């Protein structure tokens, strides 16, 4: 399963606008996400991919780029 379209869908819902970040672009440095939006983004990922993300994993480092999000989801068994 290619997770990128679902990740983009969740990002767009959180950002409230159409976006197309590069796979290695920092979602935080670019302003697409911030510490206040991270919980909404993670909640959206949980719903989109039917996966549980523990609060202890809420870290900008783990969700900073689309590539990192894809890797995280793959480690959770979403592929």
UniProtKB/TrEMBL annotation:
SUPFAM superfamilies: ACP-like
Domain Carrier: 1-77
Signal peptide interval: none
InterPro entries registered for this protein in UniProt: ACP-like_sf (IPR036736), PP-bd_ACP (IPR009081)
Record-given protein name: Acyl carrier protein
Natural source organism: Silvibacterium dinghuense
